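Why do we bother with holo predictions? Because pocket geometry can differ from the apo form. Keep that in mind while you read this record for 2'-deoxyadenosine-5'-diphosphate.
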Amino acid sequence: MNQAVLILIKPDGLKKSLTGNILTRLSETKLEIVAAKMARVSRELAMEHYKQLQDKPFFEELVKYLRGELHDRMKVMALVYWGKDAIKKCRDLAGATNPEEADPTSIRGSYGRITTTGVYENVIHVSSNESEAAREIKLWFGPDEIIVDMYPMKEIVEKDCKKNVWA
Ligand code: DAT
Ligand code: MG
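The structure, written out:
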């Protein structure tokens, strides 16, 4: 069964110039990339993304980390990978949440670290299951940004909606 999974290259991954290395590692999965963009991360988006963890003592630092406040770049690279067992394949390559415990050949084991203030800088986010993937992908992408139809959508007509076009 084809699955979709959200991958975020987090601000530490971008700052360390790891985008190419990470995409190369992920290409080992032979999955298809069906959406990709650079995204600014508002505080609301970061809090919504990690809402399951809102009661954890590290939540505030985690939100700052995802926003890029710890790496002076307020952006992440967001991608959707699509294919058979996509979640397990990507999570196996990513490695354990704690980068010091992750298999050293995994992405997090190779490139992650725990800061002296206790932030797990683990380079990438990978959705943990199908329902989380659906929630996260709909949070980060609109239907027109994904090149396969994976979730139900509807057409709406927005009146007097302002948007930027090329001048
Ligand atoms: P994962 O990212 O492997 O799905 P998660 O969803 O449990 O792990 O946690 C989300 C992020 O929160 C994780 O990538 C890093 C951070 N985190 C988790 N546990 C932590 C801890 N004990 N201390 C600091 N940060 C933690
Ligand atoms: Mg998770």
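The mean pLDDT is 97.
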